[in-house]
User: Fold Sugar phosphate isomerase/epimerase from Terracoccus luteus.
Amino acid sequence: MHDNDVTEVDQADEAPRQLARKLGLNRRQFFAASMGVGAAVALTPGVASAAGQAKAAVSGELVIPRGKRGIILYTVRDAISRDPATSPYASGFKAVFEELSRIGYKQIEFAGFRQSVNAPGGDVNSVEGAKLLRTWLDANGLKAQGNHGSIPSTITPETLTAFDTFCEVANILGMKHIGTGSDPTSSDQKADWDAAADRWNFLGRRAQRNGLRLYTHNHDAAYGFLKDSGPLDEAGKYTASSGIRRLEYFLQRTDPRYVFLEMDIFWAHVAKFKHVAYTAADGSMVEDLFDPLAVVQAQPKRFPLFHAKDGDSRPDLPNGWEMTPFGLGDIDYRTFLSSTGGPSGYHNPMWEQDTAPSTENPAQSLQLAELSYDMMATLRK
Assistant:
């Protein structure tokens, strides 16, 4: 890269570059932050100058329209929970909403309704608290899309009452979806997934009567293989698989009118790295590679929400990936989000980075929220 190229790029994107350097991003991530995702990916020996790459990165149709740029509040959970009386940084829902709105976000996903009791509004984990939260959302031009709450693991009068309250709060907040950050079951056994599917079909119908879509959010384990065949162990459980993955089976067993999924695209790539073979009924190992995009394309309307979490490919790590801010990793979000299928504008990508909070830099999670928003805004087809 020539010095004049660096100068031209720096002048165009000085603010993201400074933020990237402040956060200690590496050289490749620096190029991504200062030039856009496309330029960073294409930056190989023999290609056009960095300045030319930067221009190309800002042409074309937006992959994520402005109104669809979202964030799950788990990413900034430290800011939500800290005490404004002891911190100079944005603290509590009201201040964080204001900051996210300033950055440019239009959608949020809740990760519960707890904040410091000293923050404005105090304890807002109630129906009345939801009404206050809604006023702050509206004042900042933010739309709540969903929440990672608790879905009943058993159906009783008490759990259904709690679920109905969950739906009431969601409606007050203007949500279209309610969900959980947990798998329908942590088991790998077919019988347990059958029971979970029946329960979710029931709850999904109940959610729909409240004008809501019920969704499950998953990490890599749910894309592992279902134990549904082969010899039984001493506990009477299956020990082998027919090759179907747990969530694929769940999609088959649940009603597409009532039950939906939120794919965490990072963790789906972890599943692609980890869950590559299964033990068949005859004891042989069968290779079966996972394609996250193909799963979505097969039933695009089952995935109204995504977690747009980015990462560096790290085959040396157990999970094969390491989280990064959006646009600074190796996941091809341009292709993924442009190729999901389904109605235009149907999908809602929520940026998440589990590792955004920092004890050394209390401002880090919101700084990364701004950097990641900038990268979402520059992503083009």
